[in-house]
Specification:
4 strands, two-stranded antiparallel sheet, two-stranded antiparallel ribbon, 21% helix, 3 helices, alpha+beta, elongated
Length: 90
């Protein structure tokens, strides 16, 4: 599965042009990161798709994998359930 994340410090945001093209009223975190139109736009020209303080990229996640988007100061990465080291309470 493909998903769009932000690959720099600053924060996830879309350009004004892409926001309008997708028919959105807000270009922030509430965007469906798996929207095929968003993915296509980022794959075509990620600079034109990215907001002012963003560098959007398309990441791949194995089909059926449980995941979450992690973030530090706007820089995002994908964390898969299988990558988490769990501690067991005693």
């Amino acid at each position: 599965m493909k998903i769009v994340i932000n690959h720099c410090y600053g924060g996830f945001s879309l350009s004004e042009e892409l926001t309008k093209e997708l028919g959105l009223t807000y270009a922030g975190r509430d965007v469906d990161r798996t929207d095929p139109r968003l993915i296509a736009a980022v794959e075509k020209d990620n600079k034109a798709a990215s907001g002012q303080v963003a560098e959007l990229i398309v990441a791949e996640i194995p089909s059926g994998a449980k995941y979450r988007i992690q973030e530090y100061d706007g820089l995002e990465w994908i964390e898969l359930e299988t990558e988490i080291e769990w501690s067991v309470a005693k």
